[in-house]
Q: What sequence folds into this?
């Protein structure tokens, strides 16, 4: 995407990729639910087939456009990247804590039967994915906003959504709050990915993308482990962890006055 979008439109380009992931996040579970009746192994086989099709599309339809000349400076330290990695870790940490505990929280909080809890938690996940998709396919592309500012606003919306999840008195409130959180994540993820892409320049896109994904993957692992451990202490603890982590990300990313278009965190 960096090869096909100028820096001032990088967030819009990244949002298209995010929208495709959002569609897959909705269609994937639906496909699994549709074919699982044919056998428990069928969804796994279907996933393998789709992965093979995707690999074929990459080999046949995508071409490496990496610049041939790579100056020595491109192999050095990327100034300003570390704070973005810290923001990405904090942003994803909370979601990692919520992923394995949300269905149990809904069940324990509202005293639902297991099937009803799974249904409501699935609707909350669908609401998150829908908010993410709608924002990335429509809102981000229309906002003439620097990626760092987009990131800051998205983090703030996530914070509001997680706070709403804590305050919700019904499972429907949880679903709505997750939709708001998904919308915030769509804004924040687009801003974050575009910001580090612009920071990397032409020659270090792969390096920066790898480090960003490593930080997010580590956050998913740590969040899941810590979230499940905290749930034994209090059913609200994973949500408070997500709220605290997101508040930290907002504070870290918040620009100084008049500083909203700066290329990196302060």
A:
């Amino acid at each position: 995407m960096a090869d096909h979008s100028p820096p001032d439109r990088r967030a819009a380009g990244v949002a298209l990729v995010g929208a495709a992931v959002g569609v897959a996040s909705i269609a994937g579970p639906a496909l699994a639910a549709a074919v699982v009746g044919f056998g428990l192994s069928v969804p796994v086989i279907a996933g393998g087939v789709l992965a093979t099709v995707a690999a074929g599309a990459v080999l046949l339809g995508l071409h490496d456009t990496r610049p041939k000349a790579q100056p020595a400076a491109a192999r050095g330290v990327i100034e300003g990247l570390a704070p973005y990695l810290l923001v990405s870790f904090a942003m994803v940490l909370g979601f990692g804590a919520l992923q394995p505990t949300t269905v149990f929280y809904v069940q324990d909080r509202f005293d639902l039967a297991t099937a009803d809890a799974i249904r409501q938690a699935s609707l909350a996940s669908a609401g998150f994915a829908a908010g993410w998709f709608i924002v990335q396919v429509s809102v981000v592309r229309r906002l003439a906003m620097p990626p760092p500012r987009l990131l800051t606003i998205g983090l703030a919306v996530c914070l509001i959504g997680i706070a709403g999840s804590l305050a919700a008195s019904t499972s429907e409130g949880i679903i709505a709050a997750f939709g708001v959180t998904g919308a915030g994540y769509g804004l924040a993820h687009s801003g974050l990915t575009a910001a580090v892409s612009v920071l990397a320049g032409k020659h270090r896109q792969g390096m920066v993308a790898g480090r960003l994904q490593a930080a997010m993957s580590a956050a998913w692992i740590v969040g899941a482990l810590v979230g499940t451990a905290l749930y034994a202490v209090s059913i609200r603890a994973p949500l408070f962890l997500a709220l605290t982590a997101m508040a930290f990300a907002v504070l870290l990313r918040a620009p100084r006055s008049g500083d909203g278009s700066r290329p990196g965190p302060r």
